[in-house]
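Lab meeting notes turned into a lecture example. A postdoc, R.K., suggested we walk through two folding results consecutively so the class can see how the record format repeats. The first protein's sequence and structure tokens come next.
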Amino acid sequence: MAVAVAVLPRLAVAFLLLASQVSCEYGMVHVVSEQGGTQGKDYCVLYNPQWAHLPQDLAKAPLLPLKDWSASLLCSPADLPSQGFSNQIPLVSRGNCTFYEKVRLAQGSGARGLLIVSKEALVPPGGNKSQYDEIGIPVALLSHKDKLDIFKNFGQSVRAALYAPSEPMLDYNMIIIFVMAVGTVALGGYWAGSRDVKKRYLKHKRDDGPEKQEDEAVDVTPLMICVFVVMCCCMLVLLYYFYDQLVYVIIGTFCLASSTGLYSCLAPLVQRLPFCKCRVPSNGLPYFHQRPQVRLLLLALLCVAVSVLWAVYRNEDQWAWILQDALGIAFCLYMLKTIRLPTFKACTLLLMVLFFYDVFFVFITPFLTKSGNSIMVEVATGPADSATHEKLPMVLKVPRLNTSPLALCDRPFSLLGFGDILVPGLLVAYCHRFDIQVQSSRLYFVACTVAYGIGLLVTFMALALMQRGQPALLYLVPCTLTTSCALALWRRELSMFWAGSGFAKDLPQSTCVAAPTPGGTLPPKDSDNGPSSQQPAEEEPVMPPSGQASPQEPEQPEDSTTAQHPPTPTDQPGTSA
């Protein structure tokens, strides 16, 4: 209670500070050379529309001489040049006095606009209402890096026009992100469900080929969920405070995990090729003693090379995002195939805990941080004061397809975190496994996938309306959980769906009919006292549901003894004596 009382005043102060923030917008300064022959270029500026509005159309913005007076702070009349700023846009340095003092002197000297060069992070040029009414020329902040680039590319004689094109509600790149996200969830859920059920049916078969040995899926328990969420919270907070030190750890982890995921996705396709099946010669080296196929080794080298290529050129904005998205999708598919939620109860626990986690770190943390920024958004996009300027790779990213100040200044890419794909994707995979077991024609799988797509569309709408980063799980979790639960309730399968009784190992065995032995006789029925009833449970063959073919039994050598008597427990394949 005491902690709550101590936190409430801080929340109230933070709320008031956020509510009283200076209104600001991103705009552009279009620069061309006075000599001509060089194509113009746009640079980002941050301006306050309460000083003076900028035209939305470049054709309506006057093209004026841009003069470099950045050696001056423009804080007193002595800083003014003798000829004044007549009909030009001067560049002056930030510091030593208020924005109002600078722009008042510039306007009085005949300037048509004012650009203030800042070596620090751009902040909105503020003032009070009376000052706003007094000033009639636009004032904006330009980064020092852009100022150097202007005079390096265009020389000292340049002209500039200030304008601020309107922002579209949604960028076309959202369509690309939507297709990638829904496609990954659908493909990963389908693959994970089909693989899991097939593996349970074929569990009693013995195949030691290296290309047949698939990674075991990991069943998630409630304890694992709690530990996972605590680790996520700790990692996010550590990244917020030690971003420059930990970002390279995340990049290295992504390279390793994504190359593994890419190999896992491509290996089944390579194994279907009808050529290049030669194996490594016999040797005593680790892993190689199993004599893997040469083509799989070449595939592994290719996956590592793709991952290394991205790591080297990860900051190349023109095309590196394509590699990052391809590796990210492969990583998500691999995780959906490897991690398994055994019950709808576990699905609900995981999704609800991460629902509150996402909402807290996006909407609540701005009231707890000194900067007033969301921890989640700041870590995902990279802190503005980061010395490395690195970005976390654990997102799908697509560049903005329209020319807007947001694309140039603040957010040149639209992002969707891997968690917004993996967390609902695990529920989609569970729905597909349940579909196969109850023979519901993939009704749960399709319904949950469609619900995910609807939730993603709602996320995009909220993003367009609020114009700020959104916790996607706030919309995805209710859509997917409610749809799955409502469908199970409508089909009167909620208890089965909740407890996860749709797994192959839980199917009733009493309906299985024993097949004839090679000798033509049926093995005797198991009795309560007979030795044949002691067969290990994990080696007991499971019959598939009706409509699916039973997996072929491994061939056994015909033996008169085996044909007349059921095998003892020590005779079962894969069981040690």
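The second example is placed directly after the first for contrast:
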Amino acid sequence: MAARLGKRAKRTRGADGESVRKELNSKLGEVLQSRANANSVFDILEYLESENDGDVQAAIRTCSKLFESLLEKGELYVGDLPSEDEHLPDSMGAEQKYKIWMRHRYKSCVSCLVDLLHHNSFQLQELALCMLMKFIVLEGKFPLEAAKWKDGYRFPHPLLKLVVAGLLPEDKDLSTLITRFQEYLEYDDVRYYTMSWINENIAQVHKNTKEPLTAAFQNNVFGLLSSINMPVDNELSNFLVVQKEKCEDWKPAKLKEHKRMFEKVWMNFLKNKLAVSLYKKVLLILHESILPHMSKPTLMIDFLTAAYDIGGAISLLALNGLFLLIHQHNLEYPDFYKKLYSLLDPSVFHVKYRARFFHLANLFLSSTHLPVYLVAAFAKRLSRLSLTAPPQVLLMIIPFICNLIRRHPACRPLIHRPMASGDLISDPFIMEEQDPAKSQALESSLWELEALQNHYYPDVVRGANVISRALSSQESEISELLEFSSYELFEKQMKKRFGSVPLEFEPVRGILGRKQDITAEHFSL
């Protein structure tokens, strides 16, 4: 920092906030009034290092006024900035030398603001971010580059690149500040170039470290990428830096280019080894926020199939993306149903993604072209798992099984097999078999549902009694039951009103005994 401020020694500040603001305003007036007072810029910039948050905020606002005025007046050097240590030729006039010098002070200010993005105070982080974005707007109006961009449009790429790099530290979680930056991502030009710089930043980190991405860096990248709301209209015209010319040939003005960059940065990010928690976050938004906005969604096939093979909650979450690829992009996955079948274990009733899983499982098993043995295996496995399932889950599982049988009448022998034995020992079904074709489900019966007719919860009993009657052709609606919780079940029971309930059916004789009891005979009152 000291080097950026011209190697001036820092002074100890002991003044109160009001006197600091007065001093800063005085220094600002001096600099803007006469170039002879240009060295007062150092006094303003020095406050950006203050240990007092209030002083830093005042210095940021003062720098904003100062450099906004200098940019408007054209008092900053335009073009490739010479190094501050470089000897300037004697032929260069004092005017140019002053502008180069002041441009270096502006560069120091920007560097300080980028550093403040990592400050412990969110108020300072936010203020520094807003000032940097304001400078982007000002540089768009008053460019510091000598030549136009090749497309004929101006955008201060270097400054936004510094901002994006500042939001992606490798050792600090900036998720809160990234949430604040999200409003700027609504601008088409900021969104496009931000994606571009994220992509470059990931590659740069890989090049520098040769190590896996740190958890903090991964979370910051995901925070930025997940904050991007992709546009849907082909006509893009919402720019932070207003362009004077029509923007038809400018990449940030084309939806196709946005999709290409969006796809490129996500693919570059997802090829890295992610933490399990981040894996889950990606899969949660993949089907809604990523796949629909990619130019070629089929590029995600390898990522999704690898996630589906991991098992557990990650496999459950991968179902959404696979569903889109299978139904909308003709993905072929030969062992899909075998893997889906293997996901049915007792834990599936207790994960927080239970509703999502059974919603998709219902869709996958809705086809009437599925082989009978497959549907029978799913129905039987769910029936067996229902023996240890909580009551709120049983209210959904029982109609789920009945719906499978309604769709596939060939499975009706499972509930109409009068000679079937209702016990685990003689049941031919092989619960441990992971291949539904070898489970022998069609040779068994759903005796477990009959056992649930003796369940302690009355609503479960009523649901299980359905199999004792002829099944109707109309399927049961289970969408409202998918997210039914134990709390809701308890609340439902608490709201019920009961009549008089007999507490005892046989009067007690004495304190301890009952009728015809030896204790009552000898110790009754």
